[in-house]
Specification:
The protein has 438 residues and is an alpha+beta fold. Helix content is 49%, strand content 18%.
Length: 438
């Protein structure tokens, strides 16, 4: 059993590394060199990265790629994507180029409300609680005035607070359900600070409310926290063109392609096993841009997948219609994003990515991210319904396999040429490497 340790967080970075090496590694020299090899040579920049999280020992790299030729609402973008999966950036770029020649992408922010809740227990009559809430609601808002002042200057703040009765689901359980506008900030810290003040005010006012008996005065706050499910923070992106305009080198029969594409999307709308993989492809594009712009891809993932199941069954996030000879493909998703605060103002590559995107507002970024997801899904479904997904994916994966077997530059050149006209599978690449080396 590995040793446990007390006070690990108080050790220096070097001491943390030495403890890890002593505890887990046989070849300490190579392990140490690997960890230090990923340190930035700029000490100031490395210190910045060290302070992002706790117990930092090194940096973990992901490739930062770019997908050019996106036309969104008449403006041209090159979209940054941080992702390790082969073919994602290539597929996004190819979809962007395809739609560039057919009018580009249209995107629209439908709403930007974000949600936070105070979860509490109340032992008493809900009607009395409702009367108390109506009395205390102005105080909930006024006592957060110092917190909301700066946000209100930018046009945001608290939109509303509701009392919700959840006691049929959990006995004595109620909520303060609050909606917020956080403008260009993702707003998690702002929302959580407001919620904690709501909780403080709620408990104090209840304890002195004369109409409550002793039990009713003793409100128990369970927790105060924002929700990453934001069904009223919505963005829509779409593409459309006449069916005949879909014709291209790999779509020789556009009518047949359009029908097959629509059927593939319809399957994802009703079959959860397909929908999960379908939506995972969408998130390939979304997560890559969210990560590149310093936003919380885990929060986005959780909220998006909840939205995909909002009707009671997990379903496709994208939809397709063919009407009056027009092919239309669109996505509608919840996205809570920010372009100020957090990593956006301190991570050098995040600042680089946002400048590349022409310093977007949060609303602009919502549109860009939704478009990236739609483009990724179009590319995936197009491949699935024409050549199959593996042809393009495995050709992109070829370089990973060659690097896995430490192919030389000369070997890579010969094998890349060989697989231009041959099927790529892991076993066939291994066989080709072995044959070449013989």
């Amino acid at each position: 059993m590995p040793n446990t340790i007390s006070g690990f967080s108080k050790l220096s970075k070097s001491d943390k590394i030495e403890w890890l090496l002593d505890t887990y590694f046989k070849d300490k020299t190579n392990a140490r060199a690997l960890v230090k090899g990923y340190w930035n040579t700029d000490d100031k920049l490395q210190k910045l990265h060290d302070e992002f999280i706790e117990n930092t020992i090194t940096n973990y790299y992901l490739p930062l790629g770019v997908a050019p030729n996106f036309l969104i609402n008449g403006s041209h973008y090159t979209i940054p994507m941080a992702i390790e999966e082969s073919s994602v950036v290539a597929a996004a770029s190819k979809a962007a180029k395809f739609w560039l020649e057919r009018g580009g992408f249209k995107a629209e922010v439908l709403s930007t409300e974000k949600i936070g809740q105070v979860h509490f227990m109340f032992l008493g009559d809900f009607k009395k609680l409702q009367i108390f809430f109506n009395y205390v609601k102005p105080k909930l808002i006024s006592e957060t005035a110092t917190i909301t002042k700066s946000m209100e200057r930018r046009g945001g703040g608290i939109l509303d607070i509701e009392l919700r009765d959840k006691s049929e689901d959990v006995p004595n359980y109620y909520q303060l359900h609050a909606t917020f506008e956080t403008m260009d900030a993702m707003g998690a810290n702002f929302i959580n600070t407001c919620l904690e003040q709501f909780a403080t005010t709620l408990k104090y006012e209840a304890s002195t409310y004369e109409a409550f008996d002793a039990k009713e005065k003793d409100i128990t706050v369970i927790m105060s926290i924002l929700s990453n499910y934001v069904p009223q923070c919505l963005v829509r992106a779409e593409v459309s063109c006449k069916i005949e305009e879909l014709k291209s080198k790999d779509i020789p029969h556009p009518e047949e392609f359009a029908q097959k594409f629509k059927q593939a999307v319809s399957i994802a709308e009703i079959e959860p096993y397909r929908a999960v993989t379908h939506n995972k492809g969408i998130m390939n594009g979304i997560d890559a841009v969210v990560l590149a712009t310093g936003n919380d891809f885990r929060a986005v993932e959780a909220g998006v997948h909840a939205y995909a199941a909002k009707e009671g069954t997990y379903s496709s996030l994208t939809h397709c219609t063919i009407e009056n000879g027009v092919f239309r493909f669109w996505i509608e998703i919840p996205l809570a994003l920010g372009t100020v605060g957090g990593l956006t103002s301190i991570h050098p590559l995040v600042k680089f990515a946002l400048e590349m995107l022409q310093k977007p507002s949060a609303r602009d970024l919502m549109q860009i991210v939704a478009v990236a997801g739609l483009a990724q899904n179009f590319g995936a479904v197009k491949s699935l319904t024409t050549t199959g997904i593996q042809e393009g994916h495995m050709k992109m994966h070829l370089m990973n396999i060659l690097n896995q077997f430490e192919a030389t530059e000369a070997e890579k050149t010969k094998l890349i040429e060989h697989f231009k006209t041959n099927v790529v599978t892991h076993s066939l690449v291994v066989e080709a490497i072995e044959t070449l080396r013989k």
